């Protein structure tokens, strides 16, 4: 019983580590889009610099997971929970990388005047931030039923991406001088769309954690 109690405490600590990392990533995504919208180079630089802390968090989670696997030799649902944590941490780290890429775009475009006010990309950023937050909450709460609903949020992100894509392609076709700027913004939209996909991945891992099988959501 004492061994099981200790194991449960370690799992709880592991979940807390992941929650902390998730909050860091959610904040990075939000601030990256904010930096782009407001042309805030200082904020963008902070996101780039802060990526190390997120990477360190992933490494810490991996070490904890591998330690639990080696020392506790979990099976069944316990093994799935640890495996899921490893996968979720990897997806979060990839989200953070995209946030950094958005911040770097802010730095690249800092001296340019946007051809039109950024509206759809910030809106897309809000949708992405929400799905990331909801996916992390579902993981912490082991809410596999909620994961199905959360994954459906990615539809709105994909719709917004298609709208942004069409508008930027049209912009480039009408004015070649805007090709460079529009291309950078198109990449930003792609980064956000990919973050939404990673959040959907997390939902799939939550279902796996409970059901023991991989189910493709929102495809």
Describe, in short, the structure shown.
The chain is mostly helical. It contains seven helices and no strands.
Please name the defining characteristics of this protein.
mainly alpha, 219 residues, 84% helix
Topology:
Elements: H1 2-38, H2 41-72, H3 76-108, H4 120-140, H5 144-151, H6 154-174, H7 179-211
Largest sheet: none
Q: Briefly note the structural class of the backbone.
A: mainly alpha
Number of helices: 7
Average pLDDT level: 91
The tally of strands reads 0
Q: Poorly predicted ranges (pLDDT <50, ≥5 residues)?
A: none
Order of helices and strands: HHHHHHH
Can you tell me the overall shape?
elongated
Strand content: under 5%
How far apart the termini lie comes to: 43 Å
C-alpha-based Rg, rounded: 19 Å
Q: How helix-rich are the residues, as a percent range? A: over 70%
Structure description:
The protein is an all-alpha fold. The chain has helices at about 1-40, 40-70, 75-110, 120-140, 145-150, 155-175, 180-210. Helix 2 runs antiparallel to helix 3 (about 75-110) and helix 5 packs antiparallel against helix 7 (about 180-210).
